[in-house]
């Protein structure tokens, strides 16, 4: 069971009596980008926390199901051992260590990482190549970086452990469209270098452009899944997550003077 890649089977998660994720199954085959879409409170962050072993920090626990990487169980492991097994997370809201320097933030990403000095040096080189601004600002306190730069730092920090699978929780949140696009380009580059990505996003347009497959999460359950291009074309996703109004209904309805044509809300 499990095969290669990251495999979530029938996962349920609770915060005390609150059941935040219910019977969720998904797969991130080796080398792919997979997106999870969903509105506020759908359970996206909870899903990533369950994979990364960080649920206990939030008062949550896995109540059922399994998480495996290349067939090996990850559920039940602490966050350091999940990192060692090859899965790193860039958490929601960036969470860089504001008082620490950029360089020390990157070093913090090595906690739990395998490999000796050469592997660490290579990881730092890769982070600096992907995000040159982090090399320029290495000695500055992370709290002084812009929002976009802090997001870059959060992604780079997660990459320091050279994960097989990178978990990204809303990397575009709160960023201007141009910055969000730069982050998206870098996520694609990271993937092309061989790292699988599980990308959680409210920005469905951005996520569906990057991913080969996507899952829609609603109130803790997967309600839709499939190839990203098919989901992007589905009425349901277009209406609910891409902000596209129903063109036929819109065309049939009397249009107030000066009304705008159907709009795509996201530009990211
Ligand atoms: N630490 C917590 N303690 C108790 N309940 C929580 C906790 N974190 C999340 N929840 C609840 O679990 C459910 C899923 O929340 P989660 O943060 O996973 O959603 P999300 O899809 O990431 O939402 P958003 O897009 O707003 O980040 C929500 O009902 C939320 O209120
Ligand atoms: Mg969230």
UniProtKB/TrEMBL annotation:
The keyword Transport applies. GO terms for biological process: L-amino acid transport. Residues 6-244 form the ABC transporter domain. InterPro entries: AAA+_ATPase, ABC_transporter-like_ATP-bd, ABC_transporter-like_CS, BCAA_Transport_ATP-bd_LivF, P-loop_NTPase. Pfam families: ABC_tran. It comes from the Bacteria. PROSITE patterns: ABC_TRANSPORTER_1, ABC_TRANSPORTER_2. Keywords: Amino-acid transport, ATP-binding, Nucleotide-binding, Transport. GO terms for molecular function: ATP binding; ATP hydrolysis activity; branched-chain amino acid transmembrane transporter activity. Belongs to the ABC transporter superfamily. This is ABC transporter ATP-binding protein. It comes from Streptomyces minutiscleroticus. The lineage of its organism: Bacteria, Bacillati, Actinomycetota, Actinomycetes, Kitasatosporales.
């Amino acid at each position: 069971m499990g095969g290669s890649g990251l495999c979530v089977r029938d996962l349920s998660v609770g915060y005390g009596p609150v059941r935040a994720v219910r019977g969720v199954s998904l797969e991130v085959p080796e080398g792919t980008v997979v997106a999870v879409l969903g509105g506020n409170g759908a359970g996206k962050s909870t899903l990533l926390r369950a994979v990364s072993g960080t649920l206990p920090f939030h008062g949550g626990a896995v109540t059922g199901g399994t998480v495996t990487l290349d067939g090996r169980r990850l559920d039940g492991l602490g966050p350091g051992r999940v990192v060692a097994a090859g899965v790193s997370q860039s958490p929601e809201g960036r969470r860089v260590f504001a008082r620490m320097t950029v360089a020390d933030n990157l070093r913090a990403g090595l906690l739990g990482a395998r490999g000796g000095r050469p592997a660490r040096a290579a990881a730092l080189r890769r982070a600096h190549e992907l995000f040159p601004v982090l090399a320029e600002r290495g000695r500055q306190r992370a709290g002084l970086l812009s929002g976009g730069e802090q997001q870059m730092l959060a992604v780079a920090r997660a990459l320091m452990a050279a994960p097989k699978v990178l978990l990204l929780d809303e990397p575009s949140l709160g960023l201007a469209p141009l910055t969000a696009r730069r982050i998206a380009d870098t996520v694609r580059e990271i993937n092309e270098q061989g790292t699988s990505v599980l990308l959680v996003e409210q920005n469905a347009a951005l996520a569906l452009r990057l991913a080969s497959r996507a899952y829609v999460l609603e109130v803790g359950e997967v309600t839709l899944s499939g190839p990203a291009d098919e989901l992007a074309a589905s009425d349901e996703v277009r209406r609910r997550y891409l902000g596209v109004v129903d063109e036929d209904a819109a065309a049939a309805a009397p249009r107030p003077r000066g009304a705008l044509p159907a709009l795509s809300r996201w530009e990211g």
